[in-house]
Amino acid sequence: MKFLIVFVALFAVALAAPPSSSQDAQILRSESDVGPESFKYDWETSDGQAANAEGHLNNAGSENEALAVRGSYRFVGDDGITYEVQYVADENGFQPQGAHLPVAPEA
User: Fold this and answer.
1) What is the strand order of the sheet 82-90 is part of?
2) Which of 3, 4, 44, 97 is deepest in the core (most CB within 10 A)?
3) Which of 66, 74, 65, 97 is nearest to 28 (CA)?
4) What is the reported pLDDT for 21?
5) pLDDT by residue (tens digit) across 13-27?
6) Which of 75, 73, 86, 71 is nearest to 40 (CA)?
7) Distance between CA atoms of residues 64 and 62, nearest Å
8) pLDDT tens digits, residue range 76-93?
9) Do 44 and 68 meet the contact criterion of CB atoms below 8 Å apart?
10) Residues near 83 by beta carbon (within 8 Å), at least 6 away in sequence
11) Is residue 7 pLDDT above 90, yes or no?
């Protein structure tokens, strides 16, 4: 019985959710190239979203094997502002940069 109540509640919430404007977005560009030790993709939609990245495997086959990725993504926020993030992700972690992101004070 509890399952039925939870299911009905979730169903009601899903029906009450406002429709997303991204449902009408069209794909303007979509390219990808995936290999065994590297990849690359680039896409853009009509609602202002876009992303691209290139990655490659460093030190393949060794104990220090690590994936290194460099890319960016962009989206239009609920406030109408376009946000863009450029990033590097490697053995040192995810390192994003963007005008809207806070920056740690220098020591």
Assistant:
1) 27-34, 38-45, 50-58, 66-76, 82-90, 93-97
2) 44
3) 74
4) 52
5) 444 444 455 568 999
6) 71
7) 5
8) 999 999 999 999 999 889
9) no
10) 74, 75, 76, 77, 98, 100
11) no
Q: Which residues pair with 41 in a beta bridge?
A: 32, 53
Q: Which residues contact 27 (CB under 8 A, 6 or more apart)?
A: 43, 44, 45, 46
Beta bridge partners of 42: 31, 52
pTM reported for the whole predicted model: 0.71
pLDDT band for 46, please (50, 70, 90 cuts): very high
Termini Cα distance of the chain: 58
Handedness of CA 96, 98, 100, 101 (dihedral sign): positive
Which is nearest to 29 in space by CA: 10, 13, 15, 49? 49
CA-based nearest residue to 55, from 41, 72, 69, 43: 69
